[in-house]
Design brief:
The protein is α/β, with parallel strands linked by helices and 459 residues long. The protein contains 20 helices and 10 strands. The longest helix is centred in the N-terminal third of the chain and has 22 residues.
């Protein structure tokens, strides 16, 4: 009948509208009756045009068909309803990420007679969303806080950044791709300058402390420059109430003035950047800034100077053919004079490329790696709202496992499931940590921010 064909055509059109013609299944809607409209729903038959059984379609396609059917229903019944609201929980389930993005954009084009609310954990949907139409939910002290990332953001750009013609909301929406919009889903955020930090910091934390950034609830975002202020401005009382740590270099010149790695303006720019961030975020409880005195590579070298060849020797061997060049680099890297080894480190990183240099080092890392203190402090700041006593325990057990200064009485303090006993055991370890592996200090750094040893096992 004509009405059935019309509904079928409308259904296929809705599918094409919300997911595009490439991913949309083409359906054939037919009826086993001729004119009994009152019992029409009992006799409708829907199947793919290729005569496949509908059950053979995947769950993703079936979900899309259901959404299209509901939109057709809302359109058909709009004259009888004041407002139709569609609540969609995790529309990304069982759907390829290309379809997720097309689906989101298609649903966003629906007419005013249907309001669509979606909850999602998909970075692909977040990539094509508008932060002005987005709310981020946060659970805190038994309550749910609703946070809009775009709230007063353009006002901040105008008044604080002095960008009177910048639509910062639109700029941030363009910036937040799949890789970067993880900051919207993270419990805490760390912003870094470049590839080297992005590659090495997660690996160093895992090796040194036995926990991953994911376990700590931290999303690490590579800004790709020192222009942190545009993204860090998302975190405030007005917008996203989560901790955001900025890790950046002051670029103090610690090489000889006549050497190639020396940059005469870098230190001045670093100090200017520090002053700028202090003015912008000094009173913002959600944003913290953490500085390398020189650069990330040189701080890494200084923290691991006694065993730097453990991580770099093979890289030198693979990067040069002449033994004279290899030996010169190794000798300079182990030199007691800081400017000499710093110069060698920077030349090597520039020769290989800082990002690729970091990749090669990451393959060589082990549990003896030492992490620069400003990075440890930034990690502790970023995860202070999510870390719990179970994380403390895991870090301490890992530290005792890798330590050559092991005291069997210390790990025994952690072998309990009683919260109060565990708290007291950790307090005892922290109070008597002198002479132990220095990585225990990370738990103390965490506690300085989190203050959870007297608050219970979790929050």
């Amino acid at each position: 009948m004509h009405e059935i064909k019309k509904i079928g055509d409308e259904l296929n059109q809705q599918l094409r509208d919300i997911v595009g013609s490439v991913y949309s299944p083409s359906l054939l809607l037919s009826s086993n009756i001729s004119d009994d409209m009152s019992s029409l729903s009992k006799f409708l038959l829907m199947k793919p045009e290729q005569n496949m059984d509908l059950d053979l379609l995947g769950l993703g396609h079936l979900n899309m068909i259901y959404l299209a059917l509901k939109i057709v229903e809302f359109k058909t019944c709009r004259s009888r309803e004041l407002l139709n609201i569609m609540l969609i929980e995790e529309p990304e389930a069982h759907i390829h990420h290309h379809i997720q993005k097309t689906l989101f954009e298609g649903l966003g084009l629906q007419k005013s007679y249907t309001q669509i609310l979606m909850s999602t954990h998909s970075v692909h949907l977040a990539e094509v969303s508008e932060i002005s139409h987005m709310n981020v939910l946060k659970s805190s002290n038994g309550k749910t806080i609703v946070m809009n990332p775009a709230n007063n953001l353009n006002t901040f750009a105008n008044q604080k950044l002095k960008k009177k013609n910048l639509d910062l909301v639109k700029a941030v929406e363009r910036y937040l791709d799949v890789k970067r919009n993880g900051l919207l889903f993270s419990k805490g955020v760390v912003l870094v300058e470049g590839d080297a930090e992005e590659i090495l910091i997660p690996q160093m934390v895992k090796q040194a402390f036995g926990v991953s950034l994911d376990e700590l609830g931290i999303g690490l975002i590579n800004i790709g420059s020192t222009s942190f202020e545009y993204i860090a401005s998302l975190f405030s009382d007005d917008r996203i109430q989560r901790k955001c740590a900025i890790i950046t270099d002051l670029d103090k010149q610690v090489v000889h003035g006549n050497s190639n790695p020396y940059k005469d303006k870098a230190e001045e720019l670093g100090n200017s950047r520090k002053e700028k961030f202090c003015n912008l975020f000094g009173e913002n409880q959600w944003v913290g800034t953490f500085y390398a005195c020189s650069t990330f590579e040189l701080e890494f070298l200084d923290e691991n100077k006694d065993n730097i060849l453990t991580y770099i020797n093979q890289i030198i061997e693979d990067s040069f053919t002449k033994d004279l060049t290899k030996d010169a680099y190794k000798k300079e890297l182990m030199c007691s004079e800081p400017s000499t080894r710093n110069s060698a480190m920077l030349r090597l990183a520039n020769h290989i490329g800082k990002g690729w240099f970091a990749i090669e080092i990451s393959d060589k890392l082990d549990s003896n790696i030492n992490i620069p203190s400003y990075i440890v402090d930034a990690i502790a700041f970023a995860c202070q709202e999510t870390v719990d006593i179970a994380i403390y325990k895991k870090i301490l057990l890992h530290t005792f496992e890798i330590s050559d200064k092991n005291d069997e009485t210390m790990p025994s303090k952690l072998k309990t499931n009683d919260t109060e006993d565990l708290q007291n055991g950790i307090k005892y370890i922290l109070a008597n940590k002198d002479g132990m592996n220095e990585k225990i200090n990370f738990v103390e750094d965490l506690e300085n921010y989190a203050h959870i040893l007297d608050m219970g096992a979790s929050r």
